[in-house]
Amino acid sequence: MLITSPAQKIEDPRVVRTRQLIEQAFEALLTERGFQSLRVQDITERAGINRATFYAHFTDKYDLLNYMVRQRFRAEIEKRTLNACHFSPQNVRALIVAVCEFIAEAHGHCKMPNEQFESLVETQVRNQIQLLLKNWLENEKPTVSADIAATATSWAIYGLAQQWSHDKNRPSAETFADKVLPLMMKNLGIDAR
After folding, report:
1. Is residue 107 very low, low, confident or very high in pLDDT (cuts 50, 70, 90)?
2. Which carries the bigger pLDDT value, residue 140 or residue 29?
3. Confidence (pLDDT) at 149
4. How many CB atoms lie within 10 A of CB 123?
5. Across the strands, what pairs with 4?
6. CB atoms inside a 10 Å sphere around CB 69
7. Collapsing DSSP states into helix, strand and coil, what is residue 34?
8. Which of 147, 125, 129, 128 is CA-nearest to residue 137?
9. From CA 29, how far away is CA 35, in angstroms rounded?
């Protein structure tokens, strides 16, 4: 239950605690079993809640995964203060590093990340990249529209980071970001400064 006042939103501590139990159970089961074989019943048993409680928070395991990826990637962006930054090649580089490290960590938390799992992660992360880039480009003058530049670059960053994460002899995320940064700047329609 949410209690709202004009100045703030306060979430019931029981709701927060239940959501934490669900997330912890889900994350542990992802590591043990992988996403594909995971069932809502497995999550509720591990969390010590009933199915109705789970469904009060999430529609299914896909909704839960989308929520967790979105929240955790946002937290990663906030931790690196990229959401408070302006456009610069250094910030684009930092974003590339963040995406690479996030994808590698997500794969490490899932026993057998299949196409379905990867697709759900991709959608959430790419959307967040696109929103951030559009925000950064508001005060810039890209050679194409900010929407097109942000969309193309979000696909490129995610795709390249995904390829990097599967490379067994991959360089560090920083080295990789240095290598692909000029391409991302061209995608954004802005010359490297």
Report:
1. confident
2. 29
3. 92
4. 14
5. 9
6. 21
7. coil
8. 147
9. 8
Amino acid in the structure at residue 113: P
Query: What is the enclosing helix (H) or strand (E) of 11?
Result: strand 9-11
Q: Give the tokens for residue 165.
A: 């994460």
Could you tell me which of 38, 54, 170, 43 has the C-alpha nearest to residue 103? 170
- Tokens 């990340």 -> residue: 113
Q: Among residues 158, 157, 83, 90, which one has the least CA distance to residue 118? A: 158
Task: Show the domains of the chain with their CATH numbers.
Answer: 11-58 (1.10.10.60), 62-187 (1.10.357.10)
Which among 101, 83, 92 is positioned nearest to 182, based on CA atoms?
92
Locate all alpha helices (DSSP H) within the chain, ordered by sequence: 13-33, 40-47, 51-57, 61-79, 89-108, 115-137, 146-166, 173-187
